[in-house]
């Protein structure tokens, strides 16, 4: 018996896509590869480097606070993606699975998650500032804008909780 889309929820699929994006492209190994093999002056290189934005790391030379803040940003992107996918009404109001509203709700959830994760993580820096928080939120929203379509595609076709 096949377990097709009947058991796929839009928030679950979108959150799983966000988790995979953060785990794979936020890893230190991908970060080293992208710096060594791409140019930031090309569109492809810029996008591949942008994928590494919610980076997580295990580096003994950094202070514990910096490591936690960096990892907090990556964790918050995933958790906030789930929260916004549940709260955004686009896919909830759709009459049928697979409508374009699910795609845009997933995409928007990732934009909001990136912006808010960066904003909240900035508050835990050693010298947080309002300008630094705004800049971080902008970079998080930029990440969500250019990468969030992947989460939107993942949440497309899922159903919302109970029918």
Please work out how many helical segments DSSP would assign: 7
Terminal Cα span? 21 Å
Structural class: mainly alpha
Largest sheet at a glance?
Answer: none
SSE sequence, one letter per element: HHHHHHH
Q: Count the strands?
A: 0
User: Helix fraction?
Assistant: 55-70%
| Uncertain segments | 1-5
**Total domains, how many?**
1
Transmembrane segments: 12-31, 72-91, 103-125, 140-159
Keywords: Membrane, Transmembrane, Transmembrane helix
Quick tags:
163 residues, mainly alpha, 7 helices, 0% strand, disordered N terminus
Q: How would you portray this structure in words?
A:
With 163 residues, the protein is mostly helical. It has one domain (8-53, 62-155). The chain has helices at residues 10-25, 28-37, 43-50, 64-87, 90-93, 100-122, 130-155. Helix 1 packs across helix 7 (130-155), helix 4 packs antiparallel against helix 6 (100-122) and helix 6 packs antiparallel against helix 7 (130-155). The two termini are 21 Å apart. Residues 1-5 have low confidence and may be disordered.
Summarize the helices and strands and which ones pair or pack.
Blueprint: H1 10-25, H2 28-37, H3 43-50, H4 64-87, H5 90-93, H6 100-122, H7 130-155
Helix pairs in contact: 1-4, 1-7, 4-6, 6-7
In short:
The protein has 163 residues and is mostly helical.
């Amino acid at each position: 018996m096949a377990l097709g889309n009947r058991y796929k929820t839009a928030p679950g699929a979108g959150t799983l896509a966000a988790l995979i994006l953060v785990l794979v492209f936020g890893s230190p190994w991908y970060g080293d590869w992208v710096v060594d093999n791409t140019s930031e002056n090309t569109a492809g290189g810029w996008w591949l480097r942008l994928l590494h934005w919610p980076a997580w790391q295990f580096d003994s030379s950094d202070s514990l606070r910096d490591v936690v803040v960096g990892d907090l940003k990556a964790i918050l992107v995933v958790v906030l993606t789930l929260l916004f996918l549940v709260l955004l009404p686009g896919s909830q109001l759709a009459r049928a699975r697979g409508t374009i509203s699910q795609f845009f709700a997933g995409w928007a959830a990732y934009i909001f998650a990136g912006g808010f994760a960066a904003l909240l993580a900035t508050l835990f820096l050693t010298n947080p500032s309002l300008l630094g928080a705004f800049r971080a939120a902008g970079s998080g929203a930029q990440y969500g804008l250019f990468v969030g379509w992947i989460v939107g595609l993942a949440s497309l076709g899922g159903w919302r909780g109970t029918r």
